[in-house]
Specification:
With about 575 residues, the chain is of the alpha/beta class. Helix content is about 30%, strand content about 15%. It contains 16 helices and 19 strands. Helix 7 links the parallel strand 3 and strand 4.
């Protein structure tokens, strides 16, 4: 109907949407044309003066919708084909990602296959599978005993013949290969023991890592994540009862935390412990109970750091309140001075609330002194009592170190090339190794004559003839800027350490002492000789002894840095 007013006319449409048009069974162009033509005369009849309508715009590309905009079956089919092609292209574009996932799954299956099956009976002392084959080998049991225990389902209470010898003080080695021990019997290689731990990185567990304070750098296991994976780690420092008397453990704890931060190892906490005196064991147990969360707990560390002794101390402390731990004390791992006592993971029922405790084989490292000496000489490397520093030169002598050479047993030679008149070296390590000082010009002849006799280990003429010698040479330049404290420590892997004090010897001449103290900066030149694979570390001085609490300086940290640092306990 036309509007009576003489003004531009607009078509009026209802605000409510029109009902959707039914889509014909077969979409044909004529259907669309008939609809558009039927509406065209109404627009024209609205006004005779209206301008002719513009030509219709081209139809938009087909999209999902209804009516004329609905895609045809051909469009749907084409879209599906394009989507399938895109997905196939994505798979082709990322073959490396799929290959990496397959490689990781294969590696995980391979590692988990090396885990000792739960149905295999093992010696509770060393973890070696029980057998009746080769006599004298780890895990050997007499056939009559094996059959009797098997008949009564008591194989898990059997101790193998090697463990019985170890418990009576015999030195029975079993590990050879790269990182093993020359001499004696070798039934398993160090590489095979590492492979037994490869499954651990795929387990959900709590890792308790043990480090020997006497051999901190040599036993630290810098690549612990290769074994532990992403599992949380609690760091436990063992054998603190061997530190010199009057040592302030507050200084030692701060020194350890600073070393851990410097090595960029992320740990939950640090604990100073002694399995002999039970110092710090309660704190470790509390941390384990809080963090394990029904997971298994694995005790991990390098060989001979005291893992079995630490587990015995844990069970002894837990037995007062936990009946499960009290029962586990009867069948606990064997303790021995022989590195490589434990040859397989040992499962221990130690927790009342779920989760198991595992003793693991020690990681044998080729750069420690124990890997180069004969198996019979191994006891000489293990300190049996509290360390006491041995100073050279002594306070009551006027001998200077410059131009002299010091021998630490037959394992270490130190040539003092340049030093102050009052420079002193203090040796911390096993007492069985003697220390001898000779002029550097006579050092070569002295070593050839006395190795195996005065300079031991190696012990005896026969072992001295096959000795590899001190072929590893490292030249050290040690800077000092303070005279009232040691400049640094020289740590020998697997043996101990040597504190370097620029002005360690008290002066009998006050005037000369004043002249020396004017030069507060300087450099000491030393040359260290060790067997070829043994490593030498230069580190900040470990604060031991009564005087250490006076010269040790705590790190100044902000609140944010203090929050990020692991806390230490003892």
């Amino acid at each position: 109907m036309a509007c009576p007013c003489p003004r531009p006319l607009f078509l009026s449409f209802p605000k409510s949407p029109a009902p959707p048009l039914a889509v014909p069974a077969k979409h044909h162009p004529s259907a669309t044309a008939s609809i558009s033509l039927s509406s065209r005369p109404r627009a024209v009849s609205a006004s005779s003066n209206a301008t002719p309508p513009s030509p219709p715009s081209p139809p938009p590309p087909p999209t999902d919708g209804v009516g004329p905009a609905a895609p045809t079956r051909g469009d749907v089919y084409l879209g599906r084909q394009l989507a399938a092609a895109a997905a196939a292209g994505a798979r082709v574009r990322a073959p490396e990602e799929d290959a990496e996932k397959r490689r990781r799954r294969k590696e995980k299956r391979k590692a988990l296959a090396k885990k000792t099956p739960s149905g295999v009976a093992c010696c509770y002392g060393c973890g070696a599978p029980l057998h009746t084959g080769e006599e004298g080998s780890p895990g050997y049991v007499q056939p009559a005993t094996y059959d009797l225990k098997k008949r009564h389902n008591q194989l898990r209470t059997v101790l193998c013949g090697r463990c019985k010898l170890l418990s009576h003080g015999h030195m029975v080695t079993a590990v050879g290969g790269h990182g093993g021990y020359p001499g004696g019997k070798q039934f398993v290689t160090a590489e095979e023991l590492r492979e037994k731990l490869s499954y651990l990185r795929h387990e959900k567990a709590l890792i308790v890592k043990l480090v020997d304070i006497v051999d901190f750098n040599g036993s630290f296991l810098g690549r612990i994540r290769d074994f532990a994976g992403a599992n949380p780690i609690v760091l436990v420092i063992t054998k603190v009862d061997l530190l010199p008397r009057d040592t302030d453990l507050n200084c030692v704890g701060d020194w350890v935390v600073e070393s851990v931060v410097r090595k960029k190892l992320n740990v939950l906490s640090v604990h100073l412990t002694s399995s002999k005196s039970l110092v710090g064991i309660t704190g470790v147990i509390s941390e384990i109970q809080q963090e394990k969360k029904a997971r298994d707990v694995y005790i991990l560390g390098s060989a001979n750091v005291g893992k079995s002794a630490f587990i015995s101390a844990m069970l002894k402390t837990m037995a007062y309140k936990d009946p499960v731990a009290a029962a586990a004390q009867k069948y606990k791992p064997i303790q021995s001075a022989v590195p490589g006592t434990t040859l397989g993971p040992i499962q221990i029922e130690a927790f009342l609330g779920g989760g198991k405790l595992y003793d693991t084989p020690g990681v044998h490292l080729h750069h420690r002194q124990a890997a180069v000496i004969h198996a019979d000489d191994l006891p000489s490397l293990a300190p049996q009592s509290r360390l006491k520093g041995r100073c050279f030169p002594a306070n009551d002598t006027d001998v200077e170190l410059s131009g002299n050479t010091l021998f630490w047993g037959g394992l270490v030679r130190i040539d003092v090339v340049k030093a102050l008149p009052r420079t002193r070296l203090t040796f911390y390590g096993p007492k069985k190794l003697s220390i001898n000082m000779v002029p550097t010009t006579e050092a070569d002849e002295f070593y050839k004559k006395e190795v195996g006799v005065t300079l031991t280990p190696p012990t005896g003429q026969e072992r001295a003839e096959g000795w590899c010698g001190l072929e590893g040479v490292r030249e050290l330049k040690i800077n000092y800027d303070e005279l009232d404290r040691p400049a640094s420590d020289i740590a020998i892997s697997g043996l101990g350490w040597i504190a370097v004090e620029p002005l360690g010897v008290p002066s009998s001449d006050p005037d000369g002492s004043a002249e020396e103290e004017e030069d507060v900066r300087g450099e000491l030149h030393l040359t260290v000789h060790v067997p070829k694979p043994v490593e030498v570390f230069v580190r900040s001085p470990l604060p031991v002894g009564k005087a250490a609490s006076q010269w040790y300086r705590y790190q100044e940290l902000t609140e944010a840095e203090e929050e990020l640092r692991p806390k230490w306990h003892y």
